[in-house]
Every structure is written in C-alpha cells, then in structure tokens.
Design brief:
The chain is mainly α and 337 residues long. Helices cover 66% and strands 2% of the residues.
C-alpha cells in the first residue's frame, strides 16, 4: 500500500478490499501514513511477544520464532509437537494472549491510544470476536470434562482456551492432540475456523464483522416476516450502515461459499474422498492449515498429485489476500482506474 502510488496501482481500491471491513475508516488522511501506523502496531506486538515469551521461559531463538508466527497467525513452529513441546501453562497463556491480540483489528489499538480504551472496548466486532472465543472455550471445556478427556476441569479449560483461540484466528498452534477430541468439540472448532478473527488483522476466516452483520440481517428478515412494513436499518455499533453494505456482506458470503464449493469439486476430481477434499479446501481458504482427520496431516498433502497441490496453493493465496482483493486485482477495470 505504501508503494502502490509509485507503481501506478489503485492504492485506495486495494486498501478497501484488503481491509476486509464494510465500514471503511482511515486512521489518517493518507493511506501511506495509515499503513505506517499499522506497521508500527505489528512491530510492537512482535517485540512484545518476544519479551513476554522469553520471560515465560523460552530461549531467545524460540521466543523470536514463536512471536513472529503468533503475530502473523501463521502457526508455523520449529518444534514438531508445536507448543505442546514446552508443556508450560505460562507459555500457552502468553501465546494465547498473542493470538487473540493478533486476531484483533489493528486499528482498534490506534483508536484506544488516541480516543481512550472505552471507545475501543465497545467495538461491536471486537465483542463478537471475543464472544466467539469465550463461548467456544466454555462449551469445549464442558464437553471435554463430561467425556473424561481431561481429568480435571482446569486442564479441560486450559486446552479448550488455547485451541479455541488458535483455530478461531487460524494460527493452528496445538498444545495437545485436539483431533482426538469428542465430535462435538471438533465440529465447534471447525465452525470457529470459518468465523475467523477481526477485519484488519492477520487472521483468516470470513471475519467476525461479517458474521455479526449476517446475524443481524438474518434476525431482521425474520422480524420482517411478522412486521412487513418495519424499517430496519443495518446497524454496526452506533452506526447506521448504507444498504449497499448489506448487499456487500451478502455478496461476500456467496463468494465465500462458492469458493469452498468449487475448491472441493476441483480436489475431488483427483479421486480424493469428499470429506478430505472439503477439509483440504476449507483449511486452505480459511488459512488454518488444520482440519480433523486425514486432511489435517502432512502425509495427506504429500500424497496429492501436483495439480491438486497447485490448486490448494492458489486457494491459500485467495484466503490470505482476501477473496475480494484477488477479484479486484483480476478486474480490468481496476487496472484502467
């Protein structure tokens, strides 16, 4: 974004698409300055993560690596057992906090610094995002404890909190073998992978703001069945959104579902079972890299033919760059503009 004007690109269009939020609010008048603010936040989170992890007992090398991959919500680990290799509650808690903060809209940190913490904490998307993680944690804790997968409620909560934050943000760190959990917990984790983090963060998924607005829209449509003449504007926090944004959110959901459908069909063409085909495409589009069953194992991808690997690589890029960003880049009108 900072160099786009020099290269002749449409920086405004790209920023709008990549921000992944229906409410466009620049932090500064110039996009280049806004990008600098976001880069400062990203760098601050990374440096803070290194310090906290080092204080938590990690060596410097591991602290740097885990901080980098936590803030980027990439989840890549230098240890084959991921975070489970440390078996440390302090480290898990630090990484959990890092993942949750990295899945938050970076603009919120700037808003908190400039306008006060109260305004930032009242953000509707942030409350939705945190609510999803909290609800997932509570439900999985109960499921793990009831099914005797964990001997104590504290251990069940520890694992549930870490994996809920990890898979909601798309980081996909693991503190335990969560793929062996009960079916209810696995289904819940798959659902939160699709929700993802906040817009304007490094997390994947549809983004919490879109899920929030889709929920509001569904509720309004049910209300209209009873009250056909009711005027129900779409509201985000204290803002009334224009109707075109309602259409934009619905359009994104259609594109998202179509991407999953097309990707599943393309992988199934390689004689991959439907469940594995969907799982591999789902984890690619939502940039989690994790899924229950064979589609979550390295051997599954190693055995895929080259064309299937290439297809999934393309879908990973689609999920990482935002679907609309790629569509904008492929549009001739964007380059003419």
């Amino acid at each position: 974004m900072a160099i786009a004007p020099l290269a002749g690109f449409g920086a405004t269009q790209l920023y709008t698409a990549e921000a992944a939020t229906p409410v466009q609010e620049r932090l500064t008048p110039r996009i280049r300055d806004t990008v600098k603010v976001l880069a400062f936040v990203y760098g601050g989170l990374t440096l803070g993560g290194i310090v906290v992890l080092h204080l938590g007992g990690m060596g410097t090398f591991d602290a740097v690596n885990y901080a980098l991959t936590t803030v980027s919500t990439g989840g890549y680990s230098p240890d084959s057992d991921s975070v489970a290799a440390f078996d440390s509650w302090a480290i898990e808690l630090a990484i959990t906090a890092g993942m949750v903060m990295s899945g938050t809209n970076f603009a919120i940190y700037y808003t908190a610094a400039r306008r006060g913490l109260g305004r930032a904490v009242g953000n509707a998307e942030l409350l939705t995002y945190l609510g999803v993680i909290l609800a997932c944690t509570m439900l999985i804790t109960a499921d793990l404890y009831a099914s005797d997968h964990r001997g104590s409620l504290a251990l069940a909560f520890r694992d549930a909190l870490f994996q809920s934050a990890s898979l909601t943000t798309g980081t996909a760190f693991s503190s335990t073998d969560w793929t062996a959990w009960p079916p209810f917990s696995l289904a819940l984790l798959v659902l939160v992978m699709a929700v993802g983090g906040c817009a304007g963060s490094t997390a994947g998924g549809m983004k919490a703001v879109r899920v929030y607005l889709l929920g509001r829209h569904a509720g309004q449509e049910m209300f209209r069945l009873i009250h056909p003449r009711a005027a129900l504007p779409l509201v985000l926090g204290d803002r009334i959104l224009p109707e075109r944004l309602r259409v934009g959110v619905l359009s994104f959901f259609l594109v998202y579902m179509a991407t999953l459908a097309v990707g599943t069909l393309l992988i199934a063409l390689h004689q991959v079972p439907v469940g594995e085909a969907f799982g591999s495409d789902f984890s690619s589009v939502n940039i989690t890299g994790a899924f229950p069953g064979p589609a979550g194992t390295p051997q599954f991808y190693a055995d895929l033919p080259t064309t299937a690997k290439t297809t999934l690589a393309i879908f990973m890029l689609l999920g990482r760059l935002e679907l609309f960003t790629v569509l904008v880049l492929l549009s001739p009108a964007f380059w003419r503009a």
